[in-house]
């Protein structure tokens, strides 16, 4: 009977010690990303038969508190928040290219350019007003060139960022596959795998923010990952994703299946959107401003005459450095007018070259319907609206992600107050079992002394 008592008490001491170790581990990892609170599962050791008493308590396992639905929602919310934050940053970067409203912005430059033609109209044969117009035209061309260059640089940087991100993602996918292998083999050997699961959860959480993964747990303890419904981690096998650009469209390609169009959330999706939509859209719009400016001014100059009576059609104000229709990147002022501003076709008559009426007609093109000013204002309004919407989306998705994360933490995270209560309970159980051990030992010594 004494042996049974010692065993029962000893099993209680061991169980309480294991439970206290789990609580201590929980408290130590309360702020560790990806950590799931551990819970010790205790069960009675059955007796030898129906009439035999139980033989103590044993630890049947250490489990992690989880809720798969809540975890999935938190992972999805995190992916959407990361997409919104990256999209917001990208659009704000595009908006900074145009710097409106500004004293030195393109809108103010265009306004000054049109009004300066009034000075030519007032004094058609004076060199000074013509030189001012040429100088302002050069300033506009330089601004357009710089805006185009900034957008091009932004596209290059975004592409490099996406490539770097995917290199990191591929490393993490391989890490998840490796952890799957360790978890499966350790579980088969009867070893605890909670630390490995926590490590895997942390990597999966990062992948969710980067490429928007979803998960599916397997019976053997491994975790399969999917992006856009396609597998990127299957057990111990990981895909290798790459950036591909074809026909002006950038996409992420699966190295295993060759499938594209995988990513729809996370930072990578926002980078893809910037490369395929936002940057090309605003590049196209600023190119339209440059083309409209050149067409508007050159068409009117072609209807006039220079100070020598030559046709204005031979002296357009704006040209393309690469030929064809001027774009924001290629627009420049006609070198002939830079060399001799007197060749600006300010007159409406080949005979009366000092009437300045064509210069006045150019001045009145300010805010012409479908002209460059309206096109530029529309561009600025569009990017402003897009940034405003992106700011709101970033705020709302961040709030939703925080809410989902709070709910997940309330279930799977560590509540230090509750852990302290558990610790006190297990300490009391430990002390009680130790008291039983001491009592049984004292009884045995008494019996032995009486023999």
Molecular structure report:
The structure is a single chain. With 451 residues, this protein is α+β, with helices and mostly antiparallel strands. The protein folds into two domains: 2-65 and 413-450; 74-399, no CATH class. The protein contains ten helices and ten strands. The strands form four sheets. A four-stranded antiparallel sheet has the order 3-4-5-6. A hairpin with a 2-residue loop joins β4 and β5. α2 (68-98) runs parallel beside α6 and α5 (194-211) packs parallel to α6. The longest helix is centred in the middle third of the chain and has 62 residues, at 127-188. It is rod-shaped, with a radius of gyration of 37 Å. The chain starts with a helix and ends with a helix. The model has no long low-confidence stretch (mean pLDDT 88).
How many structural domains are formed by the residues?
A: 2
* N→C terminal distance: 17 Å
DSSP helix count?
Answer: 10
Give average pLDDT, whole number.
88
Sheet/helix structural class: alpha+beta
Detail the poorly predicted runs: none
Biggest sheet layout: 4 strands, antiparallel
User: Strand order across the biggest sheet?
Assistant: 3-4-5-6
Give the C-alpha Rg: 37 Å
Instruction: Count every beta strand, where a strand is a DSSP E run of 2 or more residues.
Output: 10
The general outline is: rod-shaped
Order of helices and strands: HEEHHHHEEEEEEHEEHHHH
Strand proportion: 5-15%
Helix content: 55-70%
């Amino acid at each position: 009977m004494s042996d049974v008592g010692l065993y029962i008490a000893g099993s209680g001491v061991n169980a309480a010690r294991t439970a206290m170790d789990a609580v201590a581990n929980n408290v130590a990892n309360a702020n560790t990303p990806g950590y799931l609170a551990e819970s010790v599962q205790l069960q009675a050791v059955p007796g030898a038969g129906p009439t035999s008493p139980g033989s103590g308590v044993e630890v049947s396992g250490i489990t992690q508190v989880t809720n798969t639905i809540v975890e999935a929602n938190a992972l999805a919310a995190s992916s959407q928040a990361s997409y919104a934050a990256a999209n917001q940053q990208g659009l704000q970067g595009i908006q900074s290219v145009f710097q409106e409203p500004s004293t030195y912005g393109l809108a103010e430059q265009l306004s000054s350019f049109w009004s300066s033609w009034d000075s030519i109209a007032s004094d058609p044969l004076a060199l000074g007003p013509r030189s001012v117009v040429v100088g302002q035209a050069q300033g506009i061309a330089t601004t357009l060139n710089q805006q185009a260059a900034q957008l091009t640089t932004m596209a290059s940087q975004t592409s490099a960022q996406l490539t770097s991100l995917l290199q990191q993602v591929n490393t993490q996918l391989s890490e998840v596959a490796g952890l799957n292998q360790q978890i499966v083999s350790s579980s088969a050997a009867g070893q605890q795998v909670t630390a490995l699961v926590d490590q895997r959860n942390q990597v999966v959480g990062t992948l969710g923010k980067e490429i928007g993964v979803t998960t599916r747990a397997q019976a053997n303890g491994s975790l399969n990952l999917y992006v856009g419904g396609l597998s990127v981690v299957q057990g111990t096998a990981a895909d290798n994703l790459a950036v591909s650009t074809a026909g002006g469209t950038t996409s992420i390609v699966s190295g295993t299946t060759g499938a594209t169009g995988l990513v729809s959330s996370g930072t990578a999706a926002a980078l893809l959107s910037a490369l395929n939509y936002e940057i090309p859209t605003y590049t196209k719009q600023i190119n339209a401003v440059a083309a409209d400016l050149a067409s508007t001014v050159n068409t009117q100059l072609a209807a006039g005459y220079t100070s020598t009576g030559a046709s204005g059609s031979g002296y357009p104000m704006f040209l393309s450095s690469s030929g064809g229709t001027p774009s924001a990147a290629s627009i420049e002022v006609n070198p002939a007018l830079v060399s001799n501003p007197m060749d600006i076709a300010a007159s409406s008559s080949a005979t009366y070259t000092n009437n300045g009426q064509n210069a006045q007609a150019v001045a009145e093109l300010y805010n012409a319907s479908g002209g460059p000013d309206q096109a530029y204002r529309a561009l600025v309004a569009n990017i402003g609206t897009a940034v405003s919407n992106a700011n709101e989306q970033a705020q709302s998705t961040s709030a939703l992600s925080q809410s989902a994360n709070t709910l997940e933490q309330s279930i799977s995270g560590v509540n230090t107050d509750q852990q302290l209560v558990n610790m006190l309970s297990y300490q009391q159980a430990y002390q009680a079992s130790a008291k039983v051990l001491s009592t049984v030992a004292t009884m045995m010594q008494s019996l032995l002394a009486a023999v």
